[in-house]
Each structure stands twice: as C-alpha cells, then as structure tokens.
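Our consortium's second objective concerns turning raw sequence data into structural hypotheses that experimental partners can test. To show how far this objective has progressed, the report includes one record in full. It was chosen at random from the queue rather than selected for favorable results. The single chain below, 253 residues long, was entered without modification.
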Amino acid sequence: MDFEEWLYADGMSASTVKKYAGALRGPLTTWANTYRLTESALDEIFDLNEFAEIADRVADTPEFASRNKTGHQMYSAALQKYAAFLETIFEPAHAPRGPWSNELAEILVENRTYPAFDPTDQIDARAKVLRQVVQRQGQSKFRARLITAYAAKCAFSGCAVLPTLEAAHITPYLGAATNLTSNGLLLRADIHTLWDLGLLAIDPERMQVTVAQSIVDDAYRAMHGTVPFQPVEQICRPALAALNQQWRIFQGI
C-alpha cells in the first residue's frame, strides 16, 4: 500500500487522491528541491520526523503561501495527509533508505496493514492475494508488451510458466513514461524481486547477468555470467542508458 492506496482506503475520491498525490510529487517537491530542503521527492521520504521538518520549511516558502491560498488549502492538506500516512504506516526509526526505498517501504506497509490470515475467510483472503499478484505483475499493457517481446519467457531463466512472469522495470517506476518496453524485462517473480533489491543486474558492457556475491544459492549463482534473452526487435531491447543506471545502483555508485 502506497500513499495513493492509503488515501483510497481513507475514503478519498479518485479526483482528490489525484490532486493530493500530484501536489506532493509535483509543486511541493519542486519547492522543496528549489530551496534545497531535500534532493528527493517528498513521497520518497519515509521518516515522519524528517518529513515534518521539511514540510514546515516548505510551508514557509513564498510559493507555498501564494499557491496554497489560491488552491483552497490543497497543498497544506496534501502535506497533512502524507504526514498522517507516515504516522499510520511507519515507525520512523525503521524507515528504509536508499535507491530502493519505495520497494522496501511497500514490504513494511504490507506487513503492518494487512490483518492476520483468517482461515474462515478464505474468499476474502484469496481476493487480496489476487489483487497483490495483479499489482505486482505491473500494468496490463506494459506486461502484455513484454510478454510479446520476450516470447512469454523469463529473460534470465527461460521459465515459460506465464502466471509467474512479471513486468519488471529496469529503472524504477516513475509513472507512465517509464512503462516502455525498452525499460522493461520479463522476469520470473523471484528473480524480479532480486532485481528490484539490486541483487541482480545486467553488465551493460558484456551484456551478461551479474549476481551479487551475497547470493549463494546455486540456482541463482548459475545465472551469473549468462547472456539474457533479448527481443528480436531492436526497439524492444533494454535501453543502454537504463541498464547503465541500474548497473551503477548494483555497484553502489
């Protein structure tokens, strides 16, 4: 559950959710970056104390004062809602940091948000699982394009069990503009997880799979040095710029 999902769960309408999330990622983040209050997007901050301090300083900027007044206090409401989201979901001392903050944060959110499994409510539990699978597999059109480009097989393992294959972003998802086939890989679910955690990468010079030394399982180590499958169509192949960025993250640069 991310901020938008939390807003929906809090009873917000789709239009209100769009306004609050857009304000946080757009103007509010721009003002915070402009005045060097933070270098990251505000919705990538998961420490309540850190966010509260930045939000107070953003509220003191002239841009905020002007736009908040003409926007009927929408910007102040967006800050308040995100603070409430952090207070509800996260324990600040355990807030994840680093290039994969959003992915790791989702794990914490899920653990703290979903109730314990009730064996008497298997239909509801199954519905939740299916929702999570659909969400994890990625946007349907993006996944469909990758399935076609990669011949319905995992780019790393060759696995052809379609329900286990997910649409993985080479660089993290940042909206529809990143849902390009050249910024995607079709990966088996477990391999997708390792990719998102920065434990797998493609060496952009050798075009070989590289497995982090911390991964000692033989099944994964066997992938080290192998050449991933690439689509026939050049335009569908992984973009070198995207691979380079993910490679830098993998190397901790």
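The partners drew two points from this record. The chain has eleven helices and four strands. The chain has a mean pLDDT of 80. Both points have been shared with the crystallography group to help prioritize constructs.
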